[in-house]
């Protein structure tokens, strides 16, 4: 019985490559599984809660996936700034500062009623 070291070494290298590939795929599947789990906890729960509130009659602006309603907030804020610059009326002092600081809340209150939902993202 004569062993040929070259073939044995080649088989050993081949099995090491296969083992490395197997470990790589286990890691890839593990990371993907963890990603889906985190997604399920963070995003799906948010959508479930919105659906439950909507069934109870609580509505609100539809959020985007990761940024929530922040883009719409920025748009309403900038429109309010433009409108206030164009306003040429008397300088009226008002104690209702929330509509000045957070015009999107006032906008949504008029659109959806006193109780509504909004999201600031993940």
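^ Assign residues to that structure.
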């Amino acid at each position: 019985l004569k062993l040929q070291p070259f073939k044995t070494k080649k088989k050993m290298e081949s099995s090491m490559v296969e083992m490395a590939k197997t470990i790589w795929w286990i890691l890839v599947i593990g990371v993907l599984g963890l990603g889906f789990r985190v997604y399920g906890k963070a995003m799906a729960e948010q959508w479930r809660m919105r659906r439950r509130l909507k069934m109870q009659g609580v509505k609100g602006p539809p959020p985007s996936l990761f940024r929530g309603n922040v883009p719409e907030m920025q748009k309403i804020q900038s429109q309010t700034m433009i409108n206030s610059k164009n306003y040429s009326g008397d300088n009226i002092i008002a104690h209702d500062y929330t509509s000045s600081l957070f015009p999107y809340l006032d906008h949504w209150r008029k659109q959806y009623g006193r109780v509504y939902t909004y999201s600031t993202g993940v």
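The chain has two domains: 1-57, 58-85+96-122.
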